[in-house]
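yo, GntR family transcriptional regulator is done. seq:
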Amino acid sequence: MARELTRDITPLAAGTRLPSHRALVTRFGASASTVSRALALLAQRGLVVSRPGAGTFRAAQEPAASSGDTTWQEAALALNPGLADGNPGARRLHSPGLSNTLATPSPGVIDLNSGYAHHSLLPMTALRAALTRAARSPHAWERPPVGGLADLRMWLAEDIGAGLGREDVLVVGGGQAALSTAMRAVAQPGDPVILEAPTYPGTLAAARAAGLRTVSLPLDAHGMRPDYLDDALGRTGARLVVLQPLYQNPTGVSLTEGRARELLAVARSHDAFVLEDDYARHMTHDDGIPPVKPLILLESDGTVIHIRSLTKVTSPNLRIGALAARGPVLERLRTAHMIDTMVVPAPLQHTALEVLTSSAWKRSVARLQTALAQRRRLAVRTVVETLGADVLPDHPRGGYHLWLHLPRGADESEFVSAALARGTALAPGTYFHADQPDVPRVRLSYAAAPTTADLVTGIHRLEGLV
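structure:
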């Protein structure tokens, strides 16, 4: 695709607008993420420039810089045993699912794909004020402690729950960084890791980049089954299990406290850690059932490594998160974090602390929760009216997404491509699986659309595709 587009683009004048994502999806019969990857290649080569909200344009010609022949790198990378496919500990730096999550939709495309809420739902005013105050602080440009600012760690410890202190918390650069750091700190390349199936693409990406061997376990209505986990840990010798206890991405399933305690008991009996990705703790809905407590509060022997992130409820640019743990593993986490990033920038930490301790914080979270509940109810009603009740047999009363069930035998890639051609961006279910799934699924996010009217229009564009 990139080669063909290069031939088309090269003769164009600088500033010429390229066809939209929708048009390219239709032309090539490809998925939205494949089109995005092709355009990214062209951008790397200096042929095009993307302007969010406006489109993709022919880049201005620049004097050619002399460069040597880099084709040798393909052979060098292929010969490296650490990257070879047959190596059980090979690190795989390839994640179309994560790339799709971060893709910027073309003008005219309604985003029902992104995992981040539209900025109109987030505390933009409070963030701007916090950033201004933080920049004026005499301490903003001093080197912070490796583990993070003491006051920020204390706030995060109290937010996670009673029984934790700031000495149990490490400030990291967001939830994705926490996943990556924890996997590399706890497991070695080639080790097995137990994952939910389906699961968040960022979890898959972090596991593959760490060279871990993924072992996926199916979920029921209450999450991962303890008997399946017991069998998998005994069979594989895995020492790490990754769980999303609340509004699991993408299924929306939440653990009950009883199920959570069973899973923790199984993990403890096998001397395995549970990496708890508690991404949706502040995305409960006003009509939902009381959520299960954070798993780290249900045990005291250090089984759980807890992840808490602020990006979902503040801004994707406020890359602040926390790893909380008890025992010697915390020092391993701290060292891995230090090797990767040294420290989380102090201005960012001070900005987060200003936001979290402001009078606007609780109001902004409550406002987001109310808006998400309203959008969920509207999305559920519109999906059922447009695609039928069979597509949505159940849905979570929390989080930001719905997990659509396409008819057996349907081609989810064709569905997503056809939706994009009509102007609606969705996430194909394949991206949430380590292996090819048996049934077609699609994730629909109701948080990213600019307005509720856009949300309804985006769903209506799917009419007739099922």
